[in-house]
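Protocol step 4 of 6: record predicted structures for both targets in the notebook before any analysis. Target 1:
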Amino acid sequence: MKYDYDCVVIGAGIAGMTAAIYLKRFNLRVLLIDKSKPGGLLNKISTIENYPGFVNIKGSDLAKEVYKQVEELKIDFKLENVVKIIDHKIITNIEEITTNKIILATGRKPRKIQDDVQYENLIYNAVDSAQDYHNKIVAVVGGGNSALEESLFLAHYCKKVIILNRSSNLRADEVVKNKIAKSDNIELILECSITKINAHNNMIYEIETNNGKYQIDALFSFIGYEPSVSFLDNIIMDNNYILVDENMKTNINNIYACGDIIKKEVYQLSTAIGEATIAAVNVKKDINKEKKENA
């Protein structure tokens, strides 16, 4: 059967773009597809300080640098939403695409605050919203690296940033926690859970917690992420994370997965890049094997 592409990579974050770059350099017909602009969550990260080669770089700038390689290699890119995969066919909101192999690299999306807090209009991205709250008071929910790093970014614009963390411990790196401790306009509140959000005309004016009320102008949520897998069927997962073997293969013969969509121990840019490389290499190996078998 003649396919439209040798391999389609679904997801244009750093894992997806890396996989596409390797596949193209292997001289394969490759398509990169995503429902939003290249970079994924990278575009929402204010500052990256643990990526080799850069002391400090904006997430959006790193995304642009990687996408330059995609453009230089003339890799096909389509801005479409994948709604279903059936065998070797990818169905999007616009068309149907056939492909020999598929690499899933759709990454993760921000996890929402529990449903018992009846307010949907929370903010999950400090980069695009910080300047809207210049000299105002905002609250940030979370205690990991994302929450603290985004709080530091917000502190450059806001009069005050209140960090609300459910547990008694922060999960962030020590270097980030030290920066929080030295900030004059960041208040850290531990063992604190939101019980109610008061809003008027879609604007938050107060949050109620288990240990008091806080007057704020906006609420940012950084409580972790969950994989984007809504369009997938028949793929074995664990808590919505895709299970892969050491070659990044799923339980379906022609489908591979890499990056933050898979079940693993470490979720970092560096690990996503490594997994994408392994996935691309094995796609090439398997296609070569099929050619020999069919010769």
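Target 2:
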Amino acid sequence: MALKIRLSRFGTKNEPHYRVVVAEERSRRDGDAVEQIGAYNPRSKGNPLTIKLDRVDYWVSKGAKPTSTMHAMIKRARRAAAATA
């Protein structure tokens, strides 16, 4: 069972919202997820990404691999968390 950390789309047409989820690699994009660990709203001002970095670390330690998009977003979230701390 290969796990991925990826975005799952919800919302309406022309109003995208995304959930950051841990899901099986072979499941559909909007299919059943193992756990929801954050949200992404690309149309919002300010900080569009909210993510639980401790859960990301947990799932990566268990073997989950982020997609290339999520890898970049996680790096950005870590930098923002370090700047505020």
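Step 5 preliminary note on target 2. The mean pLDDT is 92. Helices lie at 53-61, 68-84.
Proceed to step 6 after PI sign-off.
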